[in-house]
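ok, trying the design again with the full structure, not the truncated one.
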C-alpha cells in the first residue's frame, strides 16, 4: 500500500462540497491495482476510505451521518417543531449507543431514547431514574410518540403489579409463563385472559379468565367462592352495620321458589339489587320482576329496587357505582345511610362466606350454628363444606357426620290450640306432616315455630291444615 497526494483526485473529491480530500492510496486487491482516497466528511468530521472510481454524486454520501443539518432529526425537532432539543433528547442514553441527533436522519430505524413532554412521570422508571421512552426517528416522525401516552405500552405506575399486586401474584404463575416483574407490563384493565391461582385455597382456575373482569368484579374461585354477587354482599354489610336483621334470599311459599335479595320483616320491606339484564334473558327477567312486584303488593310487602342497570358504569367503577345507587335509592328514606363506613363495607365485601364457613367449621361450630351466624340456609352451608373437603382445606364427610350425630335427633313438643303438649321427635314430626327436615327448618323454624299451611306448597296444605296454628318448642 502506497500513500501519496494527487491534485486531480482532490478536485474530483471536493467538487461536491461534501468531503475534504486528505490523500490517495494505491494498493492491490484480488491481483488488480486499486486507487482509494482518504477523505473527511465536512458535516460530521468522520474519516472514510472510498474507492476513487466509485466516487461520484450518487455515492458520495457519508455512511455515518445524515449528510447535512436539514436532513437530521435535530433539525426536525428544533426548526420544524420549534422545541428545545435538550428537553426531549436523552443525551446520556443515546451517547451510550453513539447516536447524535445532528447526525441521525429523520427516517432512521435506529432506536433512540426521548423524553415525554406530555407527562413527565412517564420519563421515570421504577428505580426513579429519568430515562424517558424508547422509539425510532421514523416512528416519531410518523406521529408515534410516547407509547405510554397512546397506551401502546403500559407505564409501570399504571400496571397491574403496581395497582393490584395481589391480583398480579395470582397470575404470576407457570401456567401463564409469567413472573411478577412481567406484570409491570400488563395494564390493569387488559382484556387478555389468564389462569388464576386462588390466594385462599391455592387452586388454579379451570379456565382462563378476563383480567379486567377480575379487577372490577373480583375473582370467583371455582372451589372456595361463595357465589354471592357483590351488590348482595354490600347489602349484607349494610344490614350488619345498621343492625337491620334482614332475611336474605327470602323465599316465602307464595313466591313459588323465587327469591328476594333482602327482606325487613319489621318494616315489611323487600330489597332487590337489580343488575343489568342479560340479552338472552331480558324479557323473562322483566316478567319475573313484574310478577314479584304484584305478589309482594298482594301480601302487603313494598319492594325497594336499587337500579344497577348501567353496565358501562357498573363494569368501570363497580363499588362506587353501587354505593352511589344505594345512597340515591329509596333506602335513604328508610334507613340512616349517613353512618355507614363504606371503607369497611368494601373490605368485608371482599371476603368469601365460603372461607368463613370453613373457618367456623374448623373452630368446631355446627351447621346450625354456622347458619345462624352467616344467615345462610343449611344446603348452602353443606355445599361450602363439601367444596372445602374437595379442595383439601377442611375435613368434611357427610356419612361420617351422620354417624357422629350431625343430624342428631331432636325431641320437640307439639302444642295444639288448647295448649296441650305432645312429645315428638323431629323425624316423627316430619313424617306426620309429610315434609323434609329442610322444609321444617325453612317453613316452620324460620316462621316463628308456628305451623301455617300458607307457608307450604298446595300439595302439602291438605295434611298440614289439620295442624293449623300449632306451636312447636324444643324439649329441655
Amino acid at each position: 500500500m502506497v500513500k501519496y497526494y494527487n491534485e486531480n483526485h482532490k478536485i474530483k473529491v471536493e467538487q461536491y462540497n461534501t468531503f475534504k480530500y486528505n490523500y490517495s492510496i494505491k494498493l492491490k486487491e484480488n491481483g488488480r491495482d486499486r486507487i482509494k482516497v482518504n477523505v473527511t466528511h465536512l458535516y460530521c468530521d468522520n474519516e472514510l476510505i472510498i474507492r476513487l472510481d466509485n466516487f461520484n454524486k450518487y455515492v458520495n454520501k457519508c455512511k455515518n451521518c445524515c449528510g447535512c443539518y436539514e436532513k437530521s432529526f435535530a433539525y426536525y425537532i428544533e426548526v420544524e417543531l420549534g422545541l428545545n432539543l435538550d428537553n426531549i433528547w436523552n443525551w446520556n442514553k443515546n451517547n451510550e449507543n453513539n447516536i447524535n441527533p445532528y447526525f441521525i436522519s429523520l427516517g432512521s430505524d435506529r432506536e433512540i431514547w426521548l423524553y415525554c413532554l406530555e407527562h413527565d412521570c412517564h420519563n421515570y422508571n421504577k428505580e426513579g431514574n429519568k430515562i424517558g421512552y424508547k422509539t425510532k426517528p421514523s416512528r416519531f416522525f410518523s406521529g408515534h410518540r410516547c407509547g405510554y401516552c397512546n397506551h401502546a405500552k403500559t407505564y409501570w405506575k399504571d400496571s397491574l403489579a403496581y395497582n393490584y399486586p395481589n391480583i398480579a401474584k395470582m397470575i404470576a404463575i407457570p401456567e401463564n409463563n409469567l413472573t411478577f416483574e412481567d406484570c409491570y407490563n400488563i395494564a390493569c384493565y387488559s382484556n387478555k385472559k389468564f389462569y388464576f391461582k386462588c390466594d385462599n385455597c391455592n387452586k388454579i382456575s379451570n379456565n382462563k379468565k378476563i383480567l379486567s373482569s377480575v379487577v372490577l368484579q373480583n375473582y370467583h374461585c371455582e372451589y372456595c367462592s361463595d357465589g354471592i354477587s357483590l351488590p348482595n354482599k354490600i347489602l349484607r354489610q349494610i344490614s350488619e352495620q345498621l343492625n337491620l336483621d334482614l332475611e336474605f334470599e327470602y323465599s316465602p311459599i307464595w313466591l313459588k321458589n323465587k327469591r328476594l335479595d333482602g327482606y325487613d320483616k319489621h318494616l315489611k320491606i323487600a330489597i332487590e339489587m337489580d343488575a343489568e339484564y342479560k340479552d338472552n334473558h331480558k324479557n323473562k327477567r322483566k316478567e319475573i320482576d313484574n310478577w314479584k312486584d304484584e305478589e309482594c303488593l298482594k301480601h302487603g310487602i313494598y319492594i325497594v329496587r336499587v337500579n344497577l342497570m348501567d353496565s358501562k358504569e357498573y363494569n368501570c367503577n363497580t363499588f362506587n357505582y353501587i354505593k352511589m345507587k344505594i345512597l340515591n335509592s329509596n333506602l335513604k328514606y328508610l334507613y340512616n345511610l349517613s353512618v355507614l363506613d363504606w371503607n369497611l363495607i368494601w373490605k368485608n365485601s371482599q371476603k368469601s362466606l365460603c372461607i368463613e364457613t370453613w373457618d367456623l367449621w374448623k373452630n368446631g361450630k355446627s351447621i346450625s350454628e354456622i347458619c345462624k351466624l352467616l344467615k345462610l340456609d343449611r344446603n348452602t352451608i353443606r355445599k361450602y363444606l363439601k367444596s372445602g373437603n374437595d379442595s383439601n382445606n377442611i375435613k368434611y364427610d357427610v356419612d361420617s357426620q351422620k354417624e357422629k350425630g350431625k343430624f342428631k335427633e331432636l325431641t320437640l313438643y307439639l302444642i295444639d290450640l288448647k295448649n296441650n303438649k305432645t312429645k315428638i321427635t323431629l323425624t316423627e314430626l316430619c313424617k306426620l306432616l309429610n315434609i323434609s327436615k329442610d322444609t321444617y327448618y325453612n317453613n316452620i323454624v324460620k316462621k316463628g315455630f308456628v305451623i301455617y299451611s300458607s307457608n307450604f306448597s298446595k300439595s302439602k296444605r291438605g295434611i298440614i291444615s289439620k295442624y293449623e296454628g300449632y306451636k312447636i318448642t324444643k324439649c329441655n
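Keeping the full-length input from now on. The first strand starts at residue 2 and ends at 4.
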